[in-house]
Amino acid sequence: MQRRAHGGDDALGADCPSRRSRAIRGVQTASDAVHRLSAGTGAAGLEISPAAAREWGDNQANRTVRSKLNADLEALQRSYDKRAREADQLADENRYAAWYLFMLGLAALVLAAINVLVMRDSVVGRLSDIAQATDRIAAGDIKSEVPHLMRHDEIGHLARNMQHFRDAMQKILELEQLEFNTAQQRDAAITQRDQFNDKYQAKKWQLSAAINSMPQGLIMLDGRANVVAMNNNYRRIYNLPETIRAGSTLEKILQHRIKSGLFSDDIAKHLAAILDRIARREPTAYEIALNDGRTINIYERPMDGGGWVSVHEDVTDLRHGQRMLERTERLLATIVENVHEGIIAKDARSLRYLFVNKAAEKMIGMSRAEIVGRTANCSPRRRPT
């Protein structure tokens, strides 16, 4: 319709100027004739009768001009009528277009409102749910479920990212709890270690006090003949300096004893023999005579868990006393054997004979072998002398 209206306007615009110009020219011709007639009559002072005027104006030329003028005016009138109708039609179309645009705008507003409602329900509401879940997770509720995980749009992607964030937060909290528990266990272990260390130091002090209070000398060796511990009496027996302590070697002790004149054997053979006994875990006891005349009694025993403990006792006075006692016993036995009176020794409990001298043998008429160990009731009958 708009194209037809524009086409009519173009045709009307092309036809109207020619008709308008012809009508204007006709009017001007008539006007010029009237002016000429007025000028001629005015100059001559003549009056023209109506009949003469009609005759003057009603000629062929004027009639032709009037006919053309009337035709042009009618055509112009038709053109203006057509243009007026087209204008009315265009106005109607404009009204229809305005209503159409109004309805279209109204429909757009309704669609926009529906879109807002749909966006609020499908996007804003979902985002609000995810935001609430985020607030709960941020508040420490890591067990809270994240909604809309199964959606395949951006909201679902955001929800899955939020779930990954929640899982990461959960792992972080678990790691923090694990670190806290580990710290507690470490502190407990440190406390227990300190307690054990205190107990160890107390036991070590007690052991040191115990071995130092022993009258014998004591030395502990590991499987390689290194000194684990020694007491003061062992150090005193062999005159060891303070530089020899726990951690030193038995070879170093033997070297010092050689220098001090208390050892004269071969060090390598002596060490090999001790290592062999340690390896075989064979206990032994023996005595050694030092170059200064002392006698040392040695007891060696294997330790549980490996190693070797050796107890050294200075038995010089004991052995001297034993020798004195043996000499005294031999002297007394000689005296008892050589006296003329019979002497019999009997156990007070069992009443068994313990000793009989020669004079008693003669008096009883029995040999010493027949009497010793018997009682008076089970003694053989006396042989006649």
Automatic annotation (TrEMBL):
Residues forming coiled coils: 66-93
UniProt domain PAS: residue ranges: 328-375
Keywords in alphabetical order: Coiled coil, Membrane, Transmembrane, Transmembrane helix
Organism: Bradyrhizobium ottawaense
Protein name (Swiss-Prot/TrEMBL): PAS domain-containing protein
Organism ancestry: Bacteria, Pseudomonadati, Pseudomonadota, Alphaproteobacteria, Hyphomicrobiales
Pfam families, alphabetized: HAMP, PAS, PAS_7
Keyword Chaperone recorded: no
Domain HAMP: 121-174
Transmembrane segments: 97-118
InterPro entries documented for this protein: Biofilm_reg_signaling, HAMP_dom, PAS, PAS-like_dom_sf, PAS_fold
Protein's UniProt keywords contain Membrane: yes
